[in-house]
Design a protein that fits this description.
The protein is 35% helix and 22% strand. By secondary structure, the chain is of the alpha+beta class.
């Protein structure tokens, strides 16, 4: 292959990987592999003088693809040039004074403050056009809502989710296949949401790394002084340290030790000239500013021996290859397994049992295979599901091969699917865990959705099972009876339709006026016109309801459950009204249940009281809580749950 053709090939591979990573929050190759291919592309472009218009060396970030409003940045947000060579950093800094700080691994956000309040927040996007996430930014855990600087202030920083918060969120998810892959992907998805409540629940934090415009301080031409000013306004900033040519290497070494216990995801460091005027005078290339440079850690690697490929099934039937190898120590922890993502990645690595492989931790946390030293390429792709023994099929999408189990009754599919159906955001069958579902499947009590509501046929068997008893049985039956009355959005999500999450389920139900028959009979073209849906999700919905086996399951379920009536778009009498809910409730199971009622009638629920609030719903109307005080200051009504029900004719 000649060099120009290799450039074309690399552009295609890297652009596909970037789109998956930035726009879809998916990974189709490791960071290690991406960096190696990117460096090869840079070298070939320099050698040949050929740079294609779609080259990733000429692009920054992802193209906005979500439903959030778009915003054009006043100044393009360029990406930093990078190096892994400490001596190159020394040469770059020369005799100048610099600032060395963490390069955080989250989502870059630009904040604009006016009159001391947040005016807007915008994601980096493709560097020129970002997405407006102002309401979500107000939910960042550590963001100052009001600052003393009343001028126009523009700040850049990184939205992140700490490792400890990431682990807590994953611990709450029982289905291993549904757990989030890493904090960066979770943060990106959390920040780019329609519902700010989701952002708030994820404990997203913001760390400022640059003052772009404004500020009332006299900075003496110093970036360090700018950062100190931002701290004085209440912002958390990246940990910056002043360096020169004599202290730079020691300071890098300090960071390299600190990262082992650092709770905020970081994939390197940033070195910037402290002299503002000098840095600005250097200008920029088409892609990168010249006043700063990124330093990426040399990944700690270890050689080991591949012993096995484990084939791990998921709820959707996807069979994921997992590499099992001799235990090695990486970043202070023992590692013996790593996801290989899919068949295409496995084939590209030419893996074979007994191969000598190099492994590392991407961003110092996620085990990956960086290289196969022996490349025996002897892995046999299974033809039968490791769980049910049914036929497996290889599917190819956009050049990526994946392995699927075709058996609709595969126990793993069945377990994961039924667990989702009973989960809190679906039918909310309280007290039935995945472990209980597995036991019931093994006993033959549950085979499909409708069987949850027929468990009374097995009363004696359940009562006499280990770990159960009459009380456990009564609780399960009561939960199932309660779950018979549900809403269409909960049902849509609970059916486990591929690519249909909680938010999409609500959106689709609303679009079709909460008419289930309209949804199940809609064509792909009909579904595709829904904002935020598109052909992929539309095809998933259409294929689900036109699967004979699934259709029968749904019919059996609809004979038992009742879908609560939700008013159509034309009857949304709370449109334009915003409520705030606080305190304990008497008539509704939780705040989400009351929120669903308000939203179903066109209203909104906010997290804090403002001039736009219609009423604060609080059963303790005499409370001296912060929200009650704020409501009184703004002359906003404070009403009880009963007041709300009576005033707005709520049926419960």
């Amino acid at each position: 292959m000649n060099k120009v053709n290799r450039i074309k090939e690399l552009c295609s591979i890297l652009n596909k990987a970037s789109e998956a990573y930035y726009a879809k929050d998916e990974e189709i190759m490791s960071n290690f592999e991406y960096d190696a291919l990117y460096d090869e592309l840079v070298s070939l472009e320099e050698e040949t003088g050929v740079v294609l218009s779609d080259s990733p060396t000429q692009k920054v970030g992802y193209e906005p693809v979500s439903f959030l409003p778009k915003y054009t940045h006043a100044k393009p947000m360029l990406s930093l040039a990078k190096t892994k060579d400490r001596e190159e950093l020394l040469s770059w800094l020369s005799d100048k004074k610099g600032l060395l700080s963490w390069k955080l691994d989250g989502l870059t956000v630009v904040l604009t403050y006016e009159d001391g309040k947040l005016f807007n927040a915008v994601t980096r996007g493709n560097g020129e056009i970002g997405e407006i996430i102002t309401q979500n930014a107000l939910c960042f855990k550590n963001l100052p809502v009001k600052i003393s600087d009343t001028g126009r202030l523009i700040i850049r920083g990184e939205a992140v989710i700490t490792y400890s918060d990431f682990e807590k969120i994953n611990e709450s998810i029982t289905d291993a296949s549904e757990k989030y892959k890493n904090p960066r992907n979770l943060c990106s998805g959390s920040v780019r949401q329609l519902d700010p409540k989701i952002t708030a629940s994820r404990n997203v934090r913001f760390y400022a790394f640059a003052l772009v415009e404004g500020g009332e301080g006299d900075y003496n031409n110093s970036r360090l002084s700018q950062m100190e000013y931002l701290k004085s306004l209440g912002f958390d900033c990246v940990c910056e340290k002043e360096v020169n040519k004599d202290t730079l290497l020691d300071t890098i070494e300090w960071y390299s030790r600190e990262i082992n216990d650092y709770d905020v995801p970081s994939d390197g460091l940033v070195l910037m000239y402290d002299d503002i005027a000098y840095g600005n005078s250097l200008g920029s290339t088409a892609k990168s500013p010249r006043n700063a440079i990124a330093f990426k850690w040399q990944d700690e690697q270890a050689e080991t021996t591949l012993r096995q490929i484990e084939w791990s099934p998921s709820r959707t039937g996807l069979i994921n290859p997992v590499a099992i190898f001799d235990t090695v120590d990486l970043e202070g922890t023992n590692v013996s397994r790593a996801s290989v993502h899919n068949l295409s990645v496995m084939r590209s690595l030419k893996l074979g049992i007994g191969d000598k492989i190099m492994v590392y931790k991407a961003n110092m946390i996620i085990p990956q295979i960086s290289e196969n030293l022996t490349k025996s390429d002897n892995i046999e792709i299974p033809t039968e599901c490791p769980i049910c023994g049914s036929t497996l099929k290889i599917e190819s999408t956009d050049g990526t091969d994946t392995l699927y189990c075709l058996n609709k009754e595969c126990p793993v599919k069945q377990t994961k699917s039924l667990t989702l159906f009973a989960s809190r955001n679906a039918l909310n069958i309280d007290g039935i865990s995945e472990e209980t579902i597995i036991k019931f499947i093994e006993k033959g009590f549950i085979k499909e959705y409708a069987d949850f509501f027929k468990l009374d046929r097995y009363k004696n068997d359940i009562v006499n099972m280990d770990g159960f008893g009459i009380k456990s049985y009564d609780n399960i039956i009561a939960s199932c009876d309660k779950a018979k009355n549900t809403t269409l959005p909960r049902l849509l999500y609970g059916l486990g339709i591929e690519n249909v999450g909680v938010a999409n389920a609500k959106l689709i139900a609303s679009f079709y006026d909460y008419d289930f028959d309209k949804i199940r009979n809609a064509s792909v073209d009909d579904l595709s016109v829904i904002d935020q849906v598109g052909e992929v999700i539309a095809s998933s919905i259409y294929n689900f309801f036109h699967d004979e086996y699934k259709a029968k399951e749904v019919d059996n379920l609809l004979e038992i459950i009742t879908l609560e009536k939700i008013v159509s778009d034309g009857e949304k009498d709370l449109a334009g009204k915003t409520f705030v809910i606080t305190g304990s409730l008497n008539h509704f199971e939780n705040r989400d249940a009351l929120k669903d009622i308000i939203e179903s009638r066109g209203g909104k629920v906010a997290g804090s009281v403002s001039n736009k609030t219609e009423a604060l719903i609080n059963n303790d109307v005499t409370s001296t809580s912060g929200k009650n005080k704020k409501a009184k200051e703004l002359n906003i009504r404070i009403i009880s749950e009963d007041d709300f029900i009576n005033e707005y004719n709520i049926t419960i």
